[in-house]
Amino acid sequence: MASSRLSKLALLLALVALGASAQERVRGVISAVSGDEISVAGKKLRVGDKTELLYMQPIVLGDIKPGSFLAVTSQKGPGGQLTALEIRVQPRPVSPGHRPFEGRDDQTMTNANLDAMVQASSGRELTLSYPGGSQKIIVPDSAALFALVPGNRSQLVPGAPIFATYDASGVVLRIQAGPKK
Questions:
Q1: Fewer CB within 10 A of the end CB, N or C, for the chain?
Q2: Residue 152 and residue 55: Cα distance in Å, rounded?
Q3: pLDDT at res. 3
Q4: What is the pLDDT of residues 38-91, one digit of tens each?
């Protein structure tokens, strides 16, 4: 009986430990800043000393070179053609692969190395590769282009778009902030 209770206690502690390490994501626009706290999409999050802060520096397509690691949000078109909505040049590879974007069937996220860029009739065409696959994505003139560069807290202002990963206690682990709109 004591062994059964001990097993249940061990299971409970393991579940609590797993919950404490769970990460969540939020995308939105900062509505308020107060000290180390930011408000976005109805959530109050704390920016800690160990938060990785990146700034989305606007760039032009010519700044993107073969070999760069890109995060590309795309819209699926007729026949499955992918058209870039936003491209972010990453400072290092993060989650390589191709998947639905935020659970949507009509948008995808491709995190991959840029193998080639060629001119196509509807814009430039990127060939991206990741372990286990590759994608061709058209980049129209309307696509938003950014390079992720080291950021600082002064860029976390009301009106700035962000994408953040945070832990169960609301501490931001990694944040990407863009220019205030």
A1: N
A2: 8
A3: 53
A4: 999 999 999 999 999 999 999 999 999 999 999 999 999 988 899 999 999 999
Kindly report the pTM of this predicted structure. 0.79
- Are 51 and 171 contacting, i.e. CB atoms less than 8 angstroms apart? yes
b/e sequence 91-117, b meaning 16+ C-beta within 10 Å? eeeeebebeebeeeeeebbbbbbbeeb
**25, 43 Cβ separation under 8 angstroms:** no
Q: Which amino acid is at 115?
A: D
CATH hierarchy code of domain 2-55+148-177? 2.40.50.320
The encoded tokens of residue 130 equal: 């990741």
The secondary element (H helix, E strand) that includes residue 93 is none
Within 10 angstroms of residue 143's Cβ, the number of other Cβ atoms is 19
- Identify which has the larger pLDDT, 122 or 130: 130
